[in-house]
Amino acid sequence: MANEIHDGRHAKVKIECDNLSKAFHVPGQDKLLHVLDRVSLKVYENEFLVILGPGQSGKTVLLNCIAGLIEPSAGETRIDGRPITGPGPDRGMVFQRYALFPWKTVEHNVAFGMAVRGVPLKERLSMAHYYIKMVGLEGFEKAYPAQLSGGMKQRVSIARAYANDPDILLMDEPFGALDAQTRYAMEQELRTIWEKERRTVLFVTNNIEEAIYLGDRVVVMSALPGRVKTEYPIDIPAPRNYTDPAFLALRKKVSDDTELVL
Amino acid sequence: MTLSKRGMAIIAPVVSIAIFILLWGLVSLNVSADFLPSPLAVLKEGIRLFHAKISGTSLIGHIGWSLSRVLIAFGLAIVLGLPIGLYMGWSRVFEKIVSPIFEVLRPIPPIAWIPIAILWLGVAEGSKIFICFVGAFVIMILNAYTGMRYVDPLLIDAAKSFGATRTQQFINVAIPACMPSIFAGVQNALSMSWMCVLAAEMVGARQGVGFIIIQGMDLNKPSMILVGMVIIGIVGSLLAAALRWIERLLCPWRRELV
Questions:
Q1: Within a 10 A sphere around the Cβ of B141, how many other Cβ atoms?
Q2: Contact B143, B182 (CB under 8 A)
Q3: H-run or E-run covering A12
């Protein structure tokens, strides 16, 4: 297994994307839209990696390739050195539009992954309750998603991903639909949860502050075609603060470098 | 506020029905009773028919005949139409095989099946149930199919991301996700088969609400015709209400129903 020196630590490569390319047919036109162009990427075990990019930089497609929901046109993704063949319970996903099942209560949404794997009802509910508590939704076990606010729905979604006990969490702009206040709160909460329950996280966003606040490392992508442009290690110690001079300096540097209007 | 809301829920329908009957009564006062009998005359006729026998069967018996035809046909339409429609929306291959046939059969109104149904199955129960079935079956397939086609792909992706198999995606995600359109289909299918039973009963039946209406026409008794029509309306709306109640029971997550 590939072990490399990363950030001065001896870290294991968890996910490796090797020259991933993806092109889609444009409906009604005789040309291809190149969404991903030879993207190579390494994610280390228990690292919080943020992929930062503008719209159409293919970051969601990249995430879906790693999830196994989309097949790349060329290149491959390896997890623990093995090429992926499709989705699997080793990866948990959190979607921007929550993707909760409206007919299931919070506890049954959270227990869904375990139900798929055939975990007995009692066991999966008690696990679900643990993770519902972890995301601060105790008391809402029997509520339906329609009864929850956006922030609460995304908490359920995070609990659902965690409860299936994956090695890797794939998060696709999970806080993109939330208002600014809720967004800050959720960023803090996610970081706290992750400090307690370390997983390899791949977090996609178009928000520089969010990227710097959350990431151990930020990979910046450019748009059309999506390419890896540059990356930044974030060594601001936790707890991070959005108004900290070091934070603001890095934020300025990233936005100057990347010319992202954000 | 809550009390007045609840009060409204009871008072509003009573008032609107009262106004309707009042208007009916006013119109009937100004025309001949052979043209439009008054509400009271219809009520009296209803009571008379309730105690009499119409060609050997009581009024309740006639309603029972119509209902049992509808419910058998409707049940068959659900049992056969629902799986076909759902699977048509799920599997591209199955859709390609079935939809050409379905698209040709779909525009044929159920009433158009009456002659051939009588030829095949005779004037007895078979043909009547068949016609109600055809009407409900087509609607059931159509709603299940479109419901399935419009299932949010994101929910399927979410299920996939947890490693759900194709079958698990279908049973545990796609089918519950189309419950709203399935229920819309069930409602429409029921009213369609209720509509069809009357048409079928007007063509050579000895029992059923449709027969009462035809009997009223033959006897030149408009009040008897109207009794039949009022019964159709009442029974139909009770059936619809029963279905809504079942839907609320089966879909507790749908707040818009409560």
A1: 27
A2: yes
A3: strand A9-25
Q: How far is CA B10 from the centre of its chain?
A: 24
- The string of pLDDT tens digits covering residues B16-36 is 999 999 999 999 999 888 889
What tokens were used for B241? 């209400």
Tokens 């089966």 correspond to what residue?
A: B250
In terms of residues, how long is chain B? 258
Tell me how far apart the alpha carbons of residues A34 and A71 are, in angstroms, rounded to a whole number: 14
ipTM of the complex: 0.87
What's residue A7's pLDDT? Answer: 54
Q: What is the 3-state secondary structure (H, E, C) of chain B?
A: CHHHHHHHHHHHHHHHHHHHHHHHHHHHHHCCCCCCCCHHHHHHHHHHHHHCEECCEEHHHHHHHHHHHHHHHHHHHHHHHHHHHHHHHHCHHHHHHHHHHHHHHCCCCHHHHHHHHHHHHCCCHHHHHHHHHHHHHHHHHHHHHHHHHCCCHHHHHHHHHCCCCHHHHHHHHHHHHCHHHHHHHHHHHHHHHHHHHHHHHHCCCCCCHHHHHHHHHHCCCHHHHHHHHHHHHHHHHHHHHHHHHHHHHHCCCCHHHC
Chain segment A49-78, per-residue pLDDT in tens: 999 988 778 889 999 999 999 999 999 999
* pLDDT, chain A, mean: 88
Tally of residues, chain A: 262
Looking at the DSSP bridge assignments, the partners of residue A69 are: none
In angstroms, rounded to a whole number, what is the distance separating the alpha carbons of residues A172 and A113? 18
Distance CA A253, CA A209 (A): 12
Q: What is the DSSP letter of A11?
A: E
The minimal CB distance from B162 to the residues A103, A112, A147 is found for A112
Task: Give mean pLDDT, residues B33-62.
Answer: 90
- Please give the C-alpha separations between residue A188 and each of A48, A129, A194, A210, in angstroms, as whole numbers: 14, 21, 10, 10
Chosen from B151, B155, B156, B162 to mutate, greatest number of chain A CBs within 10 A? B162
The whole-angstrom separation of Cα B179 and Cα A207 is 37
Cα–Cα distance, B233 to B242 (Å, whole number):
14
8 Å CB contact between A85 and A69: no
Interface contact flag, B159 A116, Cβ < 8 Å = yes
Q: Identify the residue whose tokens are 């491959």.
A: A76
> Looking at the complex, does the CB of residue B251 fall below 8 Å from at least one CB of chain A?
yes
A67 contacts in chain B (CB < 8 Å): 161
Residue whose C-alpha is closest to residue B196's, from B74, B64, B79, B96 = B74
pTM summary value:
0.84
**Interchain pair B157, A103: CB under 8 A:** no
pLDDT digits (tens, 9 = 90+) for A143-190: 999 999 988 999 999 999 999 999 999 999 999 888 888 888 889 989
Determine whether the interchain pair B161/A146 forms a contact, defined as Cβ–Cβ distance below 8 Å: no
Count the neighbouring beta carbons within 10 Å of the beta carbon of residue B245. 11
